[in-house]
User: Which sequence fits this backbone?
């Protein structure tokens, strides 16, 4: 109750501050149009953000431990978050700066008009790609290697239960968590990538075929896709995984293959829709009519006339689809029916490490373990989304 | 007369990506009370932007970078949002190009009509509604008492445009900005909207800025004309002076376009086999017949213009000839031999003979292919030329259409201007070495000067290569300049056909007459004469309906 | 008033019929998928250690000796009368121990279904007003700092996995600042306020997920609308910004916003599965995942059908509501 009072009091104060600030600005600038026509809501917004910023700064400089020596985890997490944000922003800024001055003219031009979020996205995707491809070289240990040191705490400091050989500690059966995190990039990202490619191959080719030929084939495929899309994809995936697990029996690797196929098929319905819609938009163009009237065959129409024009929207869709597939696989793994051990993957790691989150109050570092794996997933999807958002914005901006 | 609006050295900038670039470089104009100023220019001249700036309004991504706009002593550039709001709608009103998009689909016409007067406190709701009905009557809308109770999508385009003029008039403003109000309409509809607009502006002695790209239209409407070109002023004069003695080269060139005339050709000899013969074609989509019993011939090296308003079946005829829409009855003959109705059944040789040039060059060229690839494909496909020979032929074709091969062969369509793209479309058709080309509104999306260039090119190619053209168009000026024969269509039926000279001299069929007389001419008195001749009730839709 | 109800009614009825047909075909897909299990169905389901009695019971229960079509008709008929069958887990349990009362799938699902609806309801109650308000604000002040900031925030939130957000919330609202329980302990006869408190964390997680998507879509719909010529016309008539929004934008924005809300509530259905597992929330999603793990086919089938039905229903609602709010369809020519 008191909290509510404080909050409403603060909001009222912001409102008053906003009104006052606008008034002052109006008088000092001689009623410049910028302040004259400013709505009160906007002034309030400025005051409110100033308050939040102030609170953030104040909180950042709180001591990290109480006088009794107990760590104040909230402050530590807040500091990590702010530091992480600043480091990422700086990295993206430097990356964009480098992109503007190094490389071919085309990419330099691209970097010139790029927002920071997109630069961040591209940088992250590059880092993930490198880690995924060279996981074997980067990781200090094997992903399934079991050591004689169980439940080593992270931090690498023997005084707090760590071990310098395992900077992030080990799990219940003694596997190095850092190595598993790195291999996770290879497995989770790699499998998601293959699945998306497969989905695009199936959905894309059928979609273009339907758009070009139309008629009964289009009707058949479209109605089929309608039905498949009427079942929520994660639910459908879980249903089919139940059956696949019976087929796979004790062959765990086979289940992973089935998962790839199942998700690819489910996701190809979405790709089909898009490819068909994009294809239909192109098919009505006069240059397609001209090619048809010239007597061109189906192969030429699809590969030479339609496909080159569909690439841009398809590429953006590829990014979005990849995120979706990646999240579905992570969710399945998190639920225990996705990528199977001994392959290391992030979804399973989150599930296995989840209980450590309850240690946050006395050992903040340990509590970050499940968040690290979950964050690794989130970071990549956020990065891809930033890039896709920029691409879509760019292509829509060109039309104006 | 007292001064109403003064625009001085107005500079407008538009945002592209993150930087601002100029779209209007210092335009000045003045307007007295009750005066009508015509603002004319091609697309991209900045005339709409200037028109909106005269209201103190800029669209998103546009800003006033310099100069002043003064309306009746009020500085609109620096006025507060409140001050401007009190003027807009009440003293300065706006009539947009597309009435269908500019009326809110969720409200009835009369409710949108009364909104301005009520908000500005000029009249009460009831009073304003009655006034609205009166205005509808003056604007000669059918059923003035009831039409206001309809939703915008229930009313036709020409009527909506008049309803919007009535709405602009609802507060009896001092100034109305008309932004291309008849561009989207057919000629017969255009004329009644023009008559209505002019009447109401005269009745209430309202000042107006009339923005358009059509010289003949502006000649009817304006007291004075100002010509803009790419954001710059070209010249300004009273309407008569401008028409009779244009000063600047650019203005003169605009007038000259109308004078192009392709040399008349002798009639085809009796008994000659026509290149294309449309015989009793009936065709349609679904259950509806769009074409009924259409027949006409096109002879070698001659141009047949097919004219009619939207929905008359001109394009459907083209689709029947190309084989995209197999006719239900009737035949298409090529050199006296029947073509298979479906293009998929036609031989490569038959397909080659019939080529097509499209209205929108933007959608007619694949944006991902270079010009050389676009023109090269039919060369390779039909003639089997490859490598060096193909390149040589492509260059030859580019020279034919007056584009420098070295400069253009490697470019993408996006890097070309509208006229250049249309030329590439012509080259692609020529590459097949056809006998017959269908030109579907090929000049209607182009500015006048560019359009004239295209017409000259097509005429030259016809003389050189003995090509036959079928020219689909709604623009009679184009017909006058290039056609040998004319086919007039209405509602899927051929109303009248014959040699051009015959068609353009009376007596005509009633519909041809209506169509011909509805095309505005470059004579400021044309509309008055026409109205005097026919009477107000005998123009536009009303006249069409009577037939 | 020229409101031609029959025309609209016809379209709405058509959509309803289409929805029913889709549901029917979906039931076939689910049935066929399950029947694609390999080898001896009963044996596979129960594993090698199954008692012969259990295997026999399942064969009997599913009428495995009959042809596929007969079995489908029987299954569908039973579902229509509310009989979703008997859980295999129950069967196995009962046959190995003998005796004991059998719980049907329907009786297992019913209370959990109510719980899930409650969770979704709380989520919608928080997410919908906040999302629409924020979306409209972002659209009105597009390009501003506020808009850019919310864009980054919502984009991040949309693309994060559910469990990441869930654990973040647990960390901050349950572990570091113990305000809410991290496990949702729901039981019969709970007071409403208690129940709301226990549901709060999963509801907040789901809110974060759908809020972002809903807000982005609302923003896009409003921006699209504000670019219409009739909005410019209204502004050129000298109408105040507030009135432009309320009178000119809102009536036309209703259809797209309703569409956005319904689509996102449909999206909740997928989100609910993972979130319920994280918080051990006794809803239908958790039941479904448990059934998937032990391959309890009747439960999996039933849950799947319920999820699909809800999904189709929400999409159908979106469709119908946007038809009803379209003036062009309400007032035909």
Assistant:
């Amino acid at each position: 109750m008191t909290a509510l009072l404080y909050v409403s009091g603060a909001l009222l104060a912001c409102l008053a501050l906003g009104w006052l600030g606008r008034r002052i600005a109006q008088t000092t600038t001689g009623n410049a149009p910028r302040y004259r026509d400013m709505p009160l809501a906007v002034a309030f917004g400025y005051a409110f953000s100033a308050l939040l910023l102030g609170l953030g700064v104040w909180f950042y400089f709180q001591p990290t431990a109480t006088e009794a020596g107990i760590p104040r985890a909230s402050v530590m997490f807040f500091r990590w978050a702010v530091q992480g944000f600043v480091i990422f922003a700086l990295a993206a800024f430097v990356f964009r700066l480098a992109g503007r001055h190094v490389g071919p003219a085309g990419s330099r031009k691209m970097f010139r008009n790029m927002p920071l979020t997109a630069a961040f996205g591209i940088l992250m995707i590059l880092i993930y790609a490198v880690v995924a491809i060279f996981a074997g070289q980067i990781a200090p240990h094997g992903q399934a290697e079991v050591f004689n040191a169980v439940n080593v705490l992270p931090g690498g400091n023997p005084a707090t239960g760590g071990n310098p050989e395992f900077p992030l500690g080990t799990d219940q059966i003694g596997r190095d968590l850092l190595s598993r995190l790195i291999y996770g990039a290879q497995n989770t990202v790699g499998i998601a990538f293959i699945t998306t490619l497969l989905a695009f191959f199936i959905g894309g080719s059928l979609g273009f075929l339907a758009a070009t030929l139309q008629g009964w084939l289009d009707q058949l495929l479209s109605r089929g896709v309608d039905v498949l899309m009427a079942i929520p994809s994660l639910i459908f995936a879980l249903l089919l995984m139940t059956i696949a697990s019976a087929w796979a029996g004790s062959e765990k690797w086979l289940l992973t293959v089935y998962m790839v196929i199942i998700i690819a098929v489910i996701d190809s319905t979405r790709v089909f829709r898009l490819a068909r819609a994009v294809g239909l938009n192109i098919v009505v163009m006069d240059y397609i009519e001209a090619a048809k009237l010239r007597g061109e065959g189906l192969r030429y129409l699809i590969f030479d006339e339609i496909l080159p024009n569909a690439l841009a929207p398809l590429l953006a869709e590829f990014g979005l689809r990849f995120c979706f597939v990646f999240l579905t696989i992570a969710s399945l793994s998190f639920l225990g029916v996705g990528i199977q051990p001994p392959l290391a993957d992030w979804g399973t790691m989150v599930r296995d490490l989840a209980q450590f989150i309850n240690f946050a109050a006395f050992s903040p570092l340990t509590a970050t373990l499940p968040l690290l794996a979950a964050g690794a997933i989130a970071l990549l999807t956020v990065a891809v989304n930033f890039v896709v958002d920029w691409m879509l914005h760019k292509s829509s901006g060109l039309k104006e | 007369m007292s001064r109403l609006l003064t625009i001085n050295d107005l500079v407008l900038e538009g945002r592209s990506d993150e930087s601002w670039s100029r779209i209007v470089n210092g335009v000045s104009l003045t307007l007295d009370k009750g005066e009508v100023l015509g603002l004319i220019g091609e697309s991209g001249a900045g005339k709409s932007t200037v028109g909106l700036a005269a209201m103190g309004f800029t669209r998103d991504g546009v800003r006033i970078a310099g100069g002043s706009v003064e309306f009746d002593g009020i500085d609109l550039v620096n006025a507060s949002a409140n001050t401007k709001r009190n003027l807009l709608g009440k003293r300065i009103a706006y009539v947009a190009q597309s009435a269908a998009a500019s009326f809110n689909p969720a409200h009835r016409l009369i409710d949108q009509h009364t909104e301005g007067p009520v908000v500005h406190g000029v009249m009460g709701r009831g009073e304003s509604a009655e006034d609205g009905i009166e205005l509808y009557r003056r604007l000669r809308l059918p059923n003035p008492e009831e039409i206001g109770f309809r939703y915008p999508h229930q009313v036709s385009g020409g009527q909506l445009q008049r309803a919007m003029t009535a709405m602009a008039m609802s507060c009896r403003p001092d100034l109305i900005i008309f932004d291309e109000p008849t561009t989207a309409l057919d000629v017969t509809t255009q004329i009644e909207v023009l008559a209505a607009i002019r009447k109401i502006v005269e009745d209430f002695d309202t000042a107006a800025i009339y923005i358009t790209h059509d010289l003949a239209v502006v000649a009817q409407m304006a007291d004075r004309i100002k010509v803009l070109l790419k954001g710059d002023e070209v010249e300004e004069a009273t309407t008569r002076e401008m028409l009779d003695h244009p000063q600047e080269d650019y203005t003169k060139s605009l007038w000259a376009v109308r004078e192009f005339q392709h040399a008349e050709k002798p009639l085809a000899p009796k008994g000659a086999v026509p290149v294309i013969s449309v015989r009793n074609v009936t065709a349609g989509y679904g259950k509806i017949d769009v074409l009924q019993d259409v027949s006409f011939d096109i002879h070698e090296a001659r141009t047949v213009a097919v004219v009619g308003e939207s929905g008359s079946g001109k394009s459907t005829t083209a689709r029947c000839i190309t084989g995209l829409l197999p006719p239900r009855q009737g035949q298409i003959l090529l050199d006296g031999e029947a073509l298979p109705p479906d293009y998929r059944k036609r031989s490569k040789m038959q397909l080659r003979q019939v080529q097509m040039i499209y209205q929108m060059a933007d959608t007619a060229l694949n944006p991902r292919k270079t010009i050389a690839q676009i023109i090269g494909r039919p060369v390779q496909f039909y003639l089997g030329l490859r490598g060096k020979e193909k390149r040589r032929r492509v260059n030859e074709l580019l020279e034919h259409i007056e584009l420098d091969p070295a400069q253009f062969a490697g470019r993408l369509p996006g890097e070309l201007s509208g006229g250049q793209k249309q030329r590439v479309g012509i080259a692609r058709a020529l590459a097949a070495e056809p006998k017959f080309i269908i030109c579907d509104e090929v000049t209607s999306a182009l500015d006048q000067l560019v359009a004239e260039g295209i017409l000259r090119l097509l005429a030259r190619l016809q003389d050189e290569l003995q090509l036959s053209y079928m020219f689909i168009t709604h623009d009679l000026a184009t017909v006058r300049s290039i056609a040998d024969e004319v086919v007039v269509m209405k509602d899927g039926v051929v109303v009248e056909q014959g040699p051009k000279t015959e068609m353009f001299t009376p007596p005509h069929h009633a519909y041809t007459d209506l169509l011909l007389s509805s095309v505005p001419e470059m004579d400021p008195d044309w509309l008055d004469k026409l109205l005097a001749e026919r009477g107000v009730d005998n123009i536009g839709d009303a006249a069409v309906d009577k037939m | 008033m020229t409101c031609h109800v029959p025309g609209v009614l016809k379209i709405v009825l058509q959509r309803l019929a289409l929805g029913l047909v889709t549901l029917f075909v979906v039931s076939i897909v689910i049935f066929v998928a399950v029947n694609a299990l390999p080898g001896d169905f009963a044996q596979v389901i129960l594993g090698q250690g199954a008692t012969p009695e259990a295997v026999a019971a399942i064969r009997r229960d599913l009428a495995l000796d009959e042809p596929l079509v007969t079995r489908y008709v029987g299954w569908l008929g039973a579902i229509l009368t509310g009989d979703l069958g008997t859980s295999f887990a129950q069967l196995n349990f009962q046959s190995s121990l003998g005796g004991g009362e059998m719980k049907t799938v329907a009786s297992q699902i019913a209370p959990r279904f109510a719980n899930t609806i409650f969770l979704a309801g709380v989520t919608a109650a928080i997410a919908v007003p906040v999302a629409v308000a924020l979306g409209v604000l972002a659209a009105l002040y597009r390009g501003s700092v506020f808009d850019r900031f919310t864009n980054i925030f919502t984009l991040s939130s949309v693309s994060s996995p559910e469990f990441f957000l869930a654990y973040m919330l647990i960390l901050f609202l349950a572990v570091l600042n113990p305000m809410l329980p991290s496990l949702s302990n729901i039981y019969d006869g709970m007071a409403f306020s208690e129940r709301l408190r226990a549901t709060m964390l999963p509801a907040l997680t789901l809110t974060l997920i759908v809020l972002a998507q809903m807000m982005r879509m609302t923003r896009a719909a409003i921006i699209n609308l504000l670019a219409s010529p009739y909005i410019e016309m209204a502004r050129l008539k000298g109408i105040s910004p507030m009135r432009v929004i309320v009178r000119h934008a809102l009536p036309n924005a209703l259809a797209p916003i309703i569409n956005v809300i319904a689509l996102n509530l449909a999206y909740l259905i997928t989100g609910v599965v993972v979130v319920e597992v994280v918080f051990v929330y006794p809803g239908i999603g958790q039941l479904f995942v448990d059934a998937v793990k032990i391959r309890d086919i009747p439960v999996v089938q039933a849950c799947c059908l319920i999820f699909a039905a809800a999904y189709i229903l929400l999409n159908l609602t979106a469709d119908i509501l946007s038809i009803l709010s379209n003036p062009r369809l309400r007032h035909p020519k």
